[in-house]
Amino acid sequence: MKKNAGLRLDVKVLEKLDQYCKSTNQKKVDVAEAAINQFINNNGEVKDALTLKLEVICEQVIKKVIAEKVAPDLSRIRAAANNADFYSQVAIELMNHQFKNVDKDTFIATDKQVAPAVNKAVLIVKDRIKALRIKKLEKEGKKNK
């Protein structure tokens, strides 16, 4: 059973309601009733246009702040981590060589003498990182297609 509620609406709301009804070929009463029922049935949890606009603006501002403020710091951290990883791999290669092929009792620091194995280890690690980077870029390229 339906009852006349005698609701009052703002002039601008009525104009928009008229436009919507003309574009959808529906009656004002049906559209207003559906909107009120939707709101009431969802316990008033319908987001208004202002809230939606604010969410979009906040999201844009957050993305901008991340791009301007956080991204450069993350790039520096990533570069430092990659550099540390690089030298860790070089150290592992050299230790592997040392423990397999050299007398374990002798030790010479690199500031005194740099063995050819150090240069070879650096080249091996650079080549490995380069190959992994190329593989990663190719994988990303396939995802973007």
Please, could you describe this protein's structure?
Helix 3 runs antiparallel to helix 4. Helices cover 76% and strands 0% of the residues. With 145 residues, the protein is mainly α. The longest helix has 53 residues, at 49-101. The chain is built from 4 helices and no strands. The mean pLDDT is 78. It folds into 2 domains: 11-41, no CATH class; 71-144. The protein has helices at 11-24, 28-41, 49-101, 116-144.
Note the beta-strand portion: under 5%
Helical stretch tally: 4
Return the string of H and E elements: HHHH
- Largest sheet features: none
Report mean pLDDT, rounded to a whole number.
78
Radius of gyration over C-alpha positions, nearest whole angstrom: 34 Å
> How many beta-strand elements?
0
* General shape: rod-shaped
Model regions low in confidence, pLDDT < 50 over at least 5 residues: none
The structural domain count equals 2
Separation of the first and last Cα atoms? 56 Å
Classify the helix fraction into a percent range: over 70%
Strand-pairing-aware structural class: mainly alpha
Chart the SSEs and their pairings.
Elements: H1 11-24, H2 28-41, H3 49-101, H4 116-144
Helix pairs in contact: 3-4
In short:
The chain is mainly α and 145 residues long.
Features:
0% strand; rod-shaped; 4 helices; 145 residues; mainly alpha
